[in-house]
Amino acid sequence: MAQLMRTPRAAAARRTLALLTAVLLLAAAARLLHITQQALWIDEGATYTILKQPDRLYALATRDHHPPLYYLLLDGWLKLAGDSVLALRLFSALCSVLSVAAVVPLARAAAWGRPAFQHASVPILAALMLALSDPEVVLAQDARMYALRTLLVILSALLYLRWTRRPSPRRALSWIAASVALLHTQYQGIFILAAEGLHALVFLRGGQRLRAVAILALIGGLFAPWFALVGFNQRLNDPGMNASLPSNWQTLADLRHKFLSAQWPLLGGLLLWGTAVWRPGERPRWRPFGATFLLLAWILLTVVISFIGNLWYPILAPHRLLLITPALAILIAQGLRNVPGGARGFLVAVIVIYGVTTVDDYYPKEPWDKVGQSAALYARPGDLALMEVYRGDLPLGYYLDHLLPPGAVSRSLRMWRDYDRATYPGGVLELLAQHPTVWLIHWSPDNSAFDFLAQTGHVRTAALTTDHWGNTISTYRYDLPPAGQLAAFTSGMTLRRADVLDGGARVDLWWSADAPLPVDYTVSAFLLDAGGALVAQHDSYPLENRHPTTQWTPGEIVYDPHPIPVEGLPPGRYTAAVQVYTWFDGQRYPLVTGEPWAVIGTLER
Question: Are the beta carbons of 389 and 364 closer than 8 angstroms?
Fold first, then answer.
C-alpha cells in the first residue's frame, strides 16, 4: 500500500520538476535571445565608466546614484568572463534566470496556511509569469543592477516569510544578509523592507513582532554607514538623463501597460482575483491577509510612495518600480489557480502564446557600436577621438576603448567640462596640438569642438554618418593640412599626401582640386612586384565611394583610404602606386608630367 501511495506522489513530483525545467529554459531563452543585438546604451555606459575609474568609491560618491554591491560583483564577474558586451550583460541575465527559479519557493511560502494556493501549479505559474515579463527580459539584457535587485528582493521576502513561520538565528541571519545586500544594490529595495515591517506589525504577535522590528532596525543599522557617508550626498550628483515620469493618471496608465502588457485587462483581473479564495461550490471570499497582504503592500508601497515622492524628487521611473514584478507574478498565479481547470488551461495558453510572440516593452538604443566602428575603421596609433555626443559618450567610450588601435586616445568633451573644468578649454587646445589627426564624433547642439579644431589649424578631410531612426550621428576626420603636393593628374586632382600602411595592406591618400570636377573619377591604389606586374589593387571613388569627386569643393582636402588585399603575397620588394581613371569608359588620366601613375612608395614584405 505504501508503495502505491508513493508512486503517484513521485510521478507528480517528476511532472512538477519537468514543468519548472521547461519554464527555466523558456526564461533563459528569452533573456539570451538577441542579448547583444543592440549596442550598449547610456546607463550601461555609465556602468562601464564607473568600473574603469581608478578610484571607484570616489566615482560612485561624485558621479553616481547607486550603492556599490552590483559594481563589486560585476567587476569580479568580468575578471572571469572578460568585458565583452555579452559578458557585461550576461551577469544580469543569470540573475534574472535565478529570479525565475527563486520565485518558486517564494510562491510556496506565500501559500502557507492557505490550502487553496498550496497546489503545485501556483509556483509553476508564478515562475511562468516572471519568465514572460517583458520588462524583466529588458532588465536581464541590461548591464545594470536591476536584475540583481529583483533576485535579492525575492530572497528578502522569501527569507522573511520563512523566519515568520519558524524563527531561528540561522533564518534571521539569512534574512538580514539578503536585505542588507539588497539595500547595497539599489536604494528602492527599502520598499520591500517597509512591506515586511508593515506585515510584521499587523500579523505577528508578541515577542516575534518585537524581534522582527529589531531585525529590520539592525538591517537599517548595517546599511547606515554607507548611506551616511556616501548615499545621502549622492542625491546632489548630476542626475544625468532624467527618466522620471510625471505623477499623473497618464503615467499610471503607462505603468499599467508596462507591467501587465497589452493583456492588462486579463492580467489585472487575475491579479485582483488572486487576492480572493474561491472553490467550486462555494462563494468567493476576499482574503487579503497574511502573505497576500505582504504581496499587496509590496506593490502598493512601491508605487504610491514613488508616485508621491516624485513630486519633490524625480524617482518615478519604470525601471525603479520593477521590483514589484515578483509580487505581481505570484498574485496572477493565485488568480489563475482560482479559475476552474479547463478555463485555467485556456487562459494560460493565451498568456503564453501572447508572451512568446509579442514584445510590448522595447527600447531602440543608439547604434554606438556602429559609430565607434566608423571612427576606428581608419584610425591609426596616435590619433585622437573626441566625443561631443551628450551622454552618449558613456557607451561610445566603451566601443572606442575596445576598437581604437593601441596608442590612440579618446576623450569626452562633456565629461571634460563637467569633471575637469579648471583645464577646459585650454587643455583641449593643448591636446589637439599634440595630435595631427582627430576623429570628432558629434551629435550635440554644442559646436565648440569645431571652433577648437579651427584654432589648432585642423581641417575636415572626411565625414562618415550613422543613421539612428532618421537622425544622423556624424563622425568627422580632421587633419593638419599637408604641405605641398606629391602629384598632379590631368583630371584636375592633386595628390597632397600618401601613406603606405601595414605592409601595403592599406594606402591612405589626401586629395584636393582647385576647381569643381565634372565627372566622378575612380582612384586605383595598387602594388607592383619587382618585375612590374600588378599583384594587388583597390579601386573606388574616394573614401570608399562615400565622397565622389563631383561632390568636392575647390580647395577641400579629401581623405581617401584604400584597403589592399595583400594576403598570400610572397616575400619581396613591392612598389605602391596610384592611378586615376573614369570607370564608365575606362579612360586613364595620367600625371601632368606624363607618367601613367604616381609612385607613392616601396616596401618589403
Answer: no
